[in-house]
Amino acid sequence: MTCKASGDVRAASGFDAHRPGGCNGWRGAWRRPKPSFNQSVIDEFRANGGKAGGPFEGGDLLLLTTTGARSGTEHTTPLGYVRHGDLLLIVGSDMGAHRHPAWYHNLLAHPLVQVEIGTERYGAVAVPAEGPRRDRLFAHVVRAAPGYGDYQANTPRVLPVVVLERTGAEAGADGPAPAPAPVRTLADKVVEVHTWLRAQLKHVRDEVDAHFAAAPDGERPEPGRTQGRVPGLGLQIRQHCLAFCQSLEFHHVSEEQHLFPAMEIHHPELGGAFERLRAEHRTVARLQQELGALPADIAGADPVRFRAELQRMPEELTAHLAYEEEVLLPPLAGIPFPPRAPKP
């Protein structure tokens, strides 16, 4: 019996012996197994190279690690997935329950997630699909795993379809993204983080352009026109804004608590530069809040004013990143990454 792309592993624990056809047809009354059930699947998955036995044998299973919306702690959930071309899709089915699963609320609050498939683990931005795009993707999911159609029939809520976008350099206009540069020093690591942050900013700008550039009839909206926007990008833009802002905040907190104090001891001549960077961090924190709030107004925003505001923020943010590289990269170029263990 194969449990292929069945969503949360609770689908398996709700097995109804009177309904044949594998977990795509399971709808047992027992929806809330003991927490140890999920943990046993997680342990087996990690111990066996991304494979699990029993009802999950041969199925498409991944581990999704999210950050708690309220607690801020990490939570790992085994989930079925469906591929659609280059897209990796998960569905917030919860067996057709009337509330979204906790992991979905978590990724709305913290879009950066960790994905484990097989023996590979990588970061991703979780972006729920909206509108017609969600409907198209869900139709594909149901063709691949019909049980999701049964789950949708069980509840009036619209089951979320979430695209897991692997983090890393964006693909260019001429083809796939180049392979990332090797990280051998702490300077390389700073450049890697900054490259990702710049890519997220570009992603947000490109999505905003797509939002304003076309109307349902294919015509470009006139300046000031707020009706007829292409649906389905508001949440996508929000998720990428949040991913950028939360990553930048974590990056700056790490610098101020760990990197800057250590470097000031060894490079006292850079004291003035570090004071400027700390002051810029406070300015950037304000910009982060403004950038995070900006997508909330996109549905009724004037395209010209919205784009002007969006352009102002990245210009200040990228100028800060450039100055940070100017100050930090030379002294960090001689520090290995990851750090080497001290000799006994």
From TrEMBL:
CDD domains: Hr-like
Organism: Streptomyces roseoverticillatus
Name of this protein: Nitroreductase/quinone reductase family protein
Catalytic activity: oxidized coenzyme F420-(gamma-L-Glu)(n) + a quinol + H(+) = reduced coenzyme F420-(gamma-L-Glu)(n) + a quinone
Position of the signal peptide: none
InterPro entries reported for this sequence: F420H2_quin_Rdtase, Hemerythrin-like, Split_barrel_FMN-bd
Family of this protein: Belongs to the F420H(2)-dependent quinone reductase family.
Residue intervals of the Hemerythrin-like domain: 187-330
Domain of life: Bacteria
